[in-house]
Amino acid sequence: MSLARRLVRASLQRRAALPDAVRHASRLRIADSVGIGLAAAAQDDIGTQIVAALAEGSAGGACGILGRSRREAPAAAAFANSALMHVLDFDDIHDAARLHPTTVTLAAALAAAQLTGASGASVTDAVLLGDELMCRLGVACSPTGTGPGSDWFLTQLFGYFGGALTAGLVLDLDEDTLVSALGLAYMQAAGGKQAGFGTGATARAVYPAFAAQGGVLACLLARAGLRGPDGAFDGVAGLFPVYLGSQPTAAQLELLLAAEPWHASAIELKPWPSCRLSHPYVAAALALRRDSGNVDPVAVQAHVNASAAKLCRPLAERQRPATLQDAKYSIPWMIAFTLVRGRVALGELGPASLVDEQVLAVARRVEVLETLPDRPGHPPARVTLRAADGRVWESPAGIEREVDGMSEDDVRRKFDDCLAFAGRTPQQSAALWSRLLALTAEPDVDFLFEGGALP
Question: For residue 185, how far is the Cα from the chain centroid?
């Protein structure tokens, strides 16, 4: 039996008995993603460019776009919503897998649900199972700064499969059709990381959207009768041998197929709208700003590992980023921004910050030293400051652990901030939060798209 079929069967078996705790966590992630998407839709930049591109030659469609009055065909709407959920670099992430699952799976689920009138419960469960598949694939790969998976956006590469499984579950496809959809998803699979490693492009903001779009398209093709290849993962030219260098090991197969644990339970919500690998350095800079009394440093040293080093090269361009996407991906610039501003939030971290001369001056003083061990998950960040009078401060040991574990109250505050950024009132925010936290009781998801605005 192919691995694709075994994965589909495992997902269908999990769907029959989903624990209440993991379903509640899924609703929190859905609420978080919707809030981020609405905040992004309020910006007149990349979101507008995406919608304009999708509208070319289009006469509309059945599926809504967050914060917009326009409707599009299902795959196009999935692309737009996924892009909006990721464009601010604020979306959830599984640290060991190094991927953003819900930005793909929720966008795919919403498109499928609007085609069929599927319930909120169907969407919640499908998103959870799609997230679980993506997380397991990512953990099986366990990416670091080098080796298999290090040069792929795993959100995109594995997202084709997570998006297809999610949309297929919402569409209530049978086992054979789901396996076919995974094969058709594989035929689209891509995700080279040059948009992240290079500088000057804004397209890094939208790479998950290709996977959401591809997952929905794969399901619609499979539902129409097109048969995809069965060996998407472990065929002679499947995902593992071609994209990751070898067939899955026995340990990887066990991880992918075991009933427990729930890997989606390790998905974290972001406290700051920047690349997750920069988060430990933001935490370090906040601690140093507090401990030093907000001293103006004459020198800053950032100790990094091989993973974090990729967010520091080429150094001169990372110290003076040309785009907001480059800035959020730059460890030197994020350290400088945090030291100067003392707050990393949507209202602070905008285009105007790219020309803040005080931030740029501190960024030029950041020296990057690749001295730390590489591993999956957070880099073990270490930052030191030196003042003009010779005093030196070093960030606390284990600072990377301080960015984990947002409470439900923290998530609610983040949601309210996103809705305020989107121009919604506190009353609108509270009403939407309540409906999203009770999503499993909603008959459908149309309330998210009523005229492009919230009631």
Answer: 19
Task: Report in angstroms the alpha-carbon separations of 49 from 54, 241, 324, 451.
Answer: 9, 37, 16, 20
Calculate mean pLDDT across residues 394-423.
96
> Distance (Å, rounded) from C-alpha 33 to C-alpha 67?
13
Pair type for strands 392-394 and 382-386:
antiparallel
Instruction: DSSP letter for 278, please.
Output: G
pTM of the full structure? 0.97
What is the DSSP code string of 300-359? EEEEE-HHHHTTS-SHHHHHS-SSHHHHHT-HHHHHHHHHHHS---TTTSSGGGGG-HHH
**What is the DSSP code (8-state) at residue 440?**
G
User: Is the pLDDT at 393 greater than 60, yes or no?
Assistant: yes
- Per-residue model confidence as pLDDT tens digits over 326-371: 999 999 999 999 999 999 999 999 999 999 999 999 999 999 999 9
User: Are the C-beta atoms of 133 and 11 separated by less than 8 Å?
Assistant: yes
pLDDT for residue 69: 87
DSSP β-ladder status, 299-304 and 366-370: parallel
pLDDT-derived band at 451, boundaries 50, 70, 90: low
**Structure tokens that stand for 340 in this block:** 């100067």
Radius of gyration over every alpha carbon of the chain, rounded to an integer in angstroms: 21
What per-residue confidence (pLDDT) applies to 455? 44
Burial label, 178 (beta-carbon count in 10 A; 0-12, 13-18, 19+): buried
Q: How far apart are CA 33 and CA 90, in angstroms?
A: 9
Q: Which of helix, strand or coil describes residue 40?
A: helix
By the 8 A CB rule, do 65 and 84 touch?
A: yes
